[in-house]
Amino acid sequence: MGGTLPGAEREPWKSPGVPVEVPEPRREFRGIWLTTVYNLDWPSKPGLPVEIQQLELREILDRVASLNMNAVVLQVRTMCDALYDSPIEPWSYFLTGEVGKAPEPYYDPLKYAVDEAHARGLELHAWFNPFRAATAAYGEAGLSADHVGRQYPWLLRPVGGHQWLDPSSEFVRNRAATVVFDVVNRYDIDAVHMDDYFYPYPEGGREPGLDDAENYQRYLLEGGTLSLGDWRREIVNEFVRDLYVEIKRSKPWVKFGLSPFGIWRPKHPESIDGLDAWRVIFADSRKWINEGWVDYLSPQLYWKREGPQSFTKLFHWWQDQNPKGRHLWPGVAASRIGKEGAGEADGRDVMEVLEQIDDTRAYLGSAPASGQLHWRWEAFATNRGGIAKLITLRRYAERAVPPPSPWLAGQGDADGDSPLPVAENPSLEKRDALSDQLEAGSDAGQWILAWETPRAKDTAPVRWWVVQARHVRSGDAKETEKPVWTTLKLVPGAAREAALGGEIGGYDALSVRPLDAIGELGFPTVLEKSASGKKRKGE
């Protein structure tokens, strides 16, 4: 690195002789749910050729990055299946059109998604449904021999149009946890994500119930004293707590996020009415964030800013239930933009979503922890109400880095005592399409910022390199004004170069600095345009 390649044009930039103050990049979580169940978002239909599946995913990730978002929450387990190569569960119907059938030619969609997301500066959160087992549309014959419904049919419980696994079964909970830990250990994911499908939601206004009477009676015979509801809630609480503990034991830097129903209980806060998730689906979600059993909570605040389920009032209430200062990134329903009756739309205007982003930013003030998780990709793919253009133009104009998780500091490899390495020997060069010396995957006609890192063994791992640029000051700018820095991109920690595009004439300084897995920054290394450097045509 650092030398000029054949076909490369050097730019008159150099390291400054004095320290340059580089502000911390903007911090905000900007996530999108990418739903695979029923092929809602990806793949567009089951059984597509592998090259089409991969093309669709790359196009989605390209567009997510172009919207200046920074995280994708990819559904990898929809109903005791796998959109990855699992030694425990069968391949998903929604991937290949047949439960248990592997992609042909073979590839691992989760590894592919992780690699492609990271290459674009996007976090990849693996989203699991823990207890939904099958849809009635499969029928018994539609399940493969290695599906839990065929292996252990006595554990299934019919609920509406689905088969459900009984959460009160210790075997069921251990199996779900084992599936999660398998993914944590084998894939370079940034987070584990779950919604609150532990006990099933009501259907058609009726509480569906779930037959766990036998296990409850056994609990009572063994001396248990909790009521049925409290017993169910405690089962879910223990499952959540144990998942958090075991994820941290394996990879402390992998975040654990939960997305519960947006209302914990009616009248909390006082003006709020709606489903009692604590009573009906046995989700004591306030306890999860009170106890710090999550790294982030994304309550599904899919309502408008005003009304009996006020987004704004609920968001404020949830933030006040957060004594340990975990991330609170509410679920925002872009899917409800548009004329009522079109999909999930309820007639709301696109400005409702933009103003909800403002609400999350305003309430947190200057704290570098704001964020949103958007439901779901379809709304942006179809540009509901112009959301795809407006959100970037008016709210996500600048790239942002996910907020830090300081409570993870010192937990094993998440941080430790070793400092992050400093980028050394930075260089800037323009590579053109005529060079036959370019590394595979390099962008022709791009300005490439490259650097080296020391080979010392006592430095901490780099999760991302943050590349920032300083804008050229206008001619009448006062010397006392602080220069404006913009975050250009994140590149994976293994990288030693970043493609900056074909034109960089609007910048007079570049910075590259390391970011670890819990969001802590290292020292920046700066290149400045030399005073003697003249602009070239096209800059």
Please give a quick description of this structure.
With about 550 residues, the chain is of the alpha/beta class. The chain has helices at about 50-65, 95, 110-120, 150, 170-185, 215-220, 230-250, 275-280, 285-290, 310-320, 350-365, 375-380, 385-395, and strands at about 10, 15, 30-35, 70-75, 125-130, 130-135, 155-160, 160-165, 190-195, 255-260, 295, 325-330, 330-335, 370-375, 425-430, 445-450, 465-470, 485-490, 495-500, 505-515, 525-530.
Give the CATH topology of the largest domain: TIM Barrel
Q: What is the distance, rounded to the nearest whole angstrom, between the alpha carbons of the first and last residues? A: 24 Å
Would you tell me the structural class of the helices and strands? alpha/beta
Under CATH at level 1, the class of the largest domain stands as Alpha Beta
Strand order of the largest sheet: 12-11-10-9-5-4-3-14-13
Taken as a percent bin, the fraction of beta residues is 15-25%
Query: How many strand elements?
Result: 21
Global mean pLDDT: 89
Instruction: Figure out the total of helices.
Output: 13
Radius of gyration: 25 Å
What form results from the Cα inertia axes? globular
- Tell me which CATH architecture of the largest domain applies here: Alpha-Beta Barrel
Helix content: 10-25%
Number of domains: 2
For CATH, the homologous superfamily of the largest domain is named as: Glycosidases
Describe the main β-sheet briefly.
Answer: 9 strands, parallel
Residue runs with pLDDT of under 50 for 5 or more positions = 1-7, 434-443, 533-539
